[in-house]
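Figure 2 data, in text form.
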Amino acid sequence: MIKFEHTIFALPFAYLGMVLAARGWPTWHQFIWITVAMAAARTLAMSVNRLADRHLDARNPRTANRALPRGLISPRAVLFYAIIAALVLALAAWQLTPLTLKLLPGAILFLVGYAYTKRFTWLSHWILGFTDGLAAPGAWAAVRNTLDPPALLLLGAITFWIAGFDLIYACQDVDFDRQERLQSVPARFGVAAALRWSRICHAITLILLAAAGGSMGLGWVYWLGLLVVTALLIYEHSLISPVDLSKVNVAFFNVNGVISVTIFVATVVALILNPIQGG
């Protein structure tokens, strides 16, 4: 029910916040519990999302083959997994810093609540982006017990990055969303407008990633990685158009998975070659 591809979007950005906060590699205690927190948060969010949308998914030809609509797993089991995931997330926050524990209720609110936002606002794409974006400042807080400007820049970058490709993904369901009176930018403003907004979001993503790298004094490897990410985003948008959405899954899963891994690897190498000084 929960695919690895879903996790690879946000996990490298959590690790990005982690290594930048640590000015290198953190302690193994921090690394393990940040990873546990991310796995638990993703399980919680996806479980609630699938549970909340099970009736909609059953009526949508694109999603009718998912596990819940097909009866391969029961709603009660999914709810059980969601509760266990929330408890594991709380344990991980407790194992990290006082700030992560204080931030936990807000994180759970977004992890659970974003699944319902498309029922009342077309801003749901950015709410989803913000929810996934919490991974980076969460990991930063887990290492430093503070929330500093670079962590907030990463939050913004991830928010617009994920919103941008969710706008693309939502174009597949424009007719269904209108039929069910669900809120999305494609359903409200049309596919062409959604793709334009997606390009704007990804331009903002690049600006914020540049600002984050500049504020941390990262070296040339980071900027090379950012150049690769720019090329990948251009390629992603070249795959789709208002009249041809046949390659949405390639743009959504493949390209975006490479983007998140690329910027993380570039950051780690930059830190190895040019360690950041300071506390």
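Caption note: The domain at 4-273 is CATH 1.10.357.140 (Tetracycline Repressor; domain 2).
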